[in-house]
What does this fold into?
Amino acid sequence: MSLSNIYVPYLMEIESITEEAPEVRTFRLKFKNQEEGENFNFKAGQFAEYSVMGGGESTFCIASPPTRAGYLECTFRRTGRVTNALSKLEVGDTVGLRGPYGNIFPIEEWEGKNLLYIAGGIALPPMRCVIWNTIDKREKYKDITIVYGARTVNDLVYKNELKEWEERPDINLITTVDPGGETPEWKGEVGFVPTIVDKVAPKAENTIAIVCGPPIMIKFTFPVLKKLGFADENIFTTLENRMKCGFGKCGRCNVGKYYVCKDGPVFTLSQLNNMPAEY
Amino acid sequence: MTPEKKIIDRVALDKLYESLKAAGNKMFAPVFRNEQTDFEYNPNASEISYNHIQTTQSVKNTVFPKIENLFRFESSQKGVDLLNIDFTKVPRVVVWNAHPCDAAAFSALDSVFNWDFKDEIYNSRREKLAVIGMSCIKADENCFCTSVDLNPGSVKGSDILLTPLANGTYLAEILTEQGKAIADANASLFTASNGENKEEVLAKVEKQFDHSKVTENLANGFENPFWHEFSLRCIGCGACAYVCPICTCFDIQDESKAGNGRRLRCWDSCGFGLFTLHTSGHNPREIQSQRWRQRVMHKFSYQPDRNEFIGCVGCGRCSRACPVDMNILEQLVALEKLEVAK
Amino acid sequence: MDNLRQKAKELLESKTVNLVIGYENGTNGKARAVFITDPEKTGKLIYDERCKQNLAVYLNKHEVKHYGKIAIVAPLMVMRSILVLVSECQVKKENIVALGIGEDGSLLDFPSLEVVEKYVAKIPLGNPQSDQEILDKLNAMTMEQRRAFWQNELERCFKCYACRAACPMCYCLRCTVECNQPQWISAPAHPLGNLEWHMLRTMHLTGRCVSCGDCGRACPLNIPIHLLTMQQAEEAFHMFGVRAGTSMKAESALSTYKPDDKENFIL
Ligand code: SF4
Ligand code: SF4
Ligand code: SF4
Ligand code: SF4
Ligand code: FES
It folds into this structure.
């Protein structure tokens, strides 16, 4: 190609597909062009534009951590036009990928602290990257607690990893399902994520909280964290505004003076307090 | 470079147009057709309008057309191939007879398409663009360039700025290297200037508001009842955004048949209800007053803050195009006087 | 005009309605829509030949619906649009007070929408004469000429959707052009995408268009887009004998089946 073009994606091959939950799938992707793969650097928190040629582009985070080289993973739920097209693909098929875009979780600044991850539903994927990233550097962090909730037991994603985290003595995993979503065998908690956070009452001292989930869950989790004594600048979240370009041109993700695709998707609660609630 | 001044008469002006066209440039010039004046590619010199106040659409079409090919894709047994656009085929374009507001808009577009990520498609068009501006000797109630730091004779953005003088000739201010190259290649069409003064022929456009006051009020006016009151009339179409020389919201769409096709960029507007709609059904800007506020805030608060330009050149096109008389000037004047709690 | 202002004032004062939608003097000599909640401000209301916008478009707007009971200044096209919207369950008839405007500009007393139905029944309906004249010319052309005419017009369209936004009957939350599973028609504003969308829009308005002409007036590119739906209004009348906006009962030509419907157009 003579001149590069920021809209042209990398071509990726689907190496494997994991069915995570009803309508939720993870693709493991590898670069068709090895050189492109070697030059592709990203950090936890960043996202990409994934596409099917003819089916359009859609935004998801990169769900695998940068500490695992050689592949990228993305997890999506089949809802719109693009995710429908993606769902029809099989191992060996081609996916387009542009990125990485956006800012990062400042995990280096978090060293020496406790980490509290709180995720709801399909929002574990945006967090999985940073969770694995910090687990892969486990010695740098103190306690790691993960509170993860979904509507039903069946809707929990990354079931294998949840098991692995569960079994590790150096990770405190708390899973929960909404009331009515439990099965007779369910051993985890039952209740909405904010309620469970309240019940578990993690200590705020020297702790960073990272919250991802549907807007309603986020809205009710923040006050719980505040009550527990978390300062606004120690609460992180990712915004899921609609995006198209991913690089600050199409205007779609503009909220106040911020562009979620450039200045985000990672924001602290103190930053959110200073922008209009248009997310 | 130091600007030079020359004179060109009406007959020579047509010759300059034909000469630029003959040199292989695609000419983008205003024509009166369908009961309005609008830019077209390659009209005949005789068709060009020199007495309109404003064209319906802006010059942004030359660098940010309503549909832009981003790349093509082809599928075969072996997989998918991506075909980049052929940048060598991007045409040379001369914007002919654009008013100073339009010419000034390019710098805002340059900034949006180049902050951080460089948009090669935009830049490839922009690099092959020359702008021959035309000062305004008339204006109407919708024009407000002087309130946004421009004026009917601003040179900003033009390679050559023409000003129609009282004696029927034109003062040509040659402002850039590119403008000089055009003037030099057509040197016989120009004569020397004799200290002609353009100020006396320029349209008088009164300054209507202080834009920094508007920006200041907006910073504290997000929750003001103003937005509801002033936008009840707005029907949420895309007319204002599409005719605006600075609005650049876009959508990305695929078009294909049997695995072969193209990815496109097409105009979009923050005023449309579906613009920010999430797949989940959640919409951060659910109602029209929020979307209207976004349009004004983006231009007069967010862009000054982030990109260091005002997202408006005062061309008045949005006011003229709006089917329901949402007049931007009226609103900006009201915003300047808005009582906001600090 | 005084009667209109007086009536609007009374309605607001007595809290019969919470909002009056009418026309006021806009900028640069234009008339435009105004929304009045304060009885003292009803003096802004005007009615003259510049008042052409079909105000019924606001009845479906989220922020306007919010007001509950609404009085609306209603020349014939608005009356007819209200009847269509009621018949299609888009507005509740008990929420609307029509401030009827007669052909001579005088205020009509409409105690209920049933009276509006009776009034409309007495008026000869059809397309405005000037538009019908253009349609007659177009209809006299050969198919090729007509196609060329429309191709030339529609090619310019940049899909700002002002025509759709101006029309009271175009209230779908997701227009076919925005449905993408599957993508029925191309979204981009290229000649084919434009033709596809306008044909679909025209079909969707067949038998529902009240010939107000607002879509055409809204178009910033002066595309006479209203001629398409107006032509269909006539077609629907000739085939099914009904005109849109004459009754609050659901009998839109294309969505109602009657045993005696003509079938000769079915290929
Ligand atoms: S906002 Fe309106 S007046 Fe300002 S540049 Fe855009 S079209 Fe012109
Ligand atoms: S201000 Fe006018 S042109 Fe802009 S969206 Fe509203 S109605 Fe359309
Ligand atoms: S003329 Fe146009 S705006 Fe009026 S009802 Fe018919 S389609 Fe709608
Ligand atoms: S108003 Fe005109 S330009 Fe806009 S979508 Fe309708 S026909 Fe096209
Ligand atoms: S996604 Fe386009 S500006 Fe952010």
